[in-house]
Amino acid sequence: MRALIQRVKSGAVKTGSVHNSIGRGLVVLLGVGRGDAEADADLLAAKTANLRIFSNDEGKFDLSLLDVKGEALVVSQFTLYGDASKGRRPDFGEAARPEEARGLYERFAGALGAAGVPVKTGVFAADMEVTIVNDGPVTIWLDTAAGGGAL
Fold first, then answer.
1. How does pLDDT run across 52-99, given as a tens digit for each residue?
2. β-strand pairing of 25-31 with 71-76
3. What is 2-143's CATH topology?
4. What residue segments make up the domains of the chain, in order of their start?
5. Pairwise CA distance, residues 98 & 124, whole Å
C-alpha cells in the first residue's frame, strides 16, 4: 500500500455534487496494490496519524497530525502504482482490482479515524477534482512494501 502525504493548509475534493474539504492537516493520496492486506492499511494509518511533519515552536518537525489536531482528506489514487519504466504509457498491473482495493481504502480511512484523526474522503474510483494548498511544501512517500512491510 502506498501513500503520498502532503501537509496542507487546506484541501478539498469534488466530484459531481459530492464535496469534502479540510483545513490544516494532511491530504493522503492512497494507492492499494495487489497483495495488500488489512494489516497494511492499519500500519499505514498509524504511521500517518503519528508522522511528525508539523513544526514545533522552534521550527523543527516534531509534531504529528494528532498533536496539531489536524484533519485528513483521503483520496483513492490507483495511479500511484503506475509503472512507466517501459514505453510511455504507464502499466497499472500492480494496482489492486477495484473490488479488492475499496475495502482496504475504507479500512485505512476507518483506522485513521479510530486513531483520533477527523477524516474526510473522496469518492472511491471516481474522477475527482482535488484542490490542495500545500504548507511548506512538505510531501512524504510511504510504502508498506519498502523494508519488508515495516514502516
1. 999 999 999 999 999 999 999 999 999 999 999 999 999 999 999 999
2. parallel
3. D-tyrosyl-trna(Tyr) Deacylase; Chain: A; (3.50.80)
4. 2-143
5. 9
Written as nine digits, the cell of 42 is: 492499519
d(CA 86, CA 83): 8
pTM confidence score = 0.94
Task: Decide if 53 contacts 122 (C-beta within 8 A).
Answer: no
- Residue 112 backbone phi and psi in degrees, to 5: -65, -45
In sequence order, which residues have a C-beta less than 8 Å from that of residue 146 and are 6 or more positions away? none
CA 115/CA 102 separation, integer angstroms: 20
User: Can you tell me which residue has the cell 500492480?
Assistant: 94
Could you give the CA distance from residue 95 to residue 65 in angstroms, rounded to a whole number? 28
Active site (catalytic) residues: 79
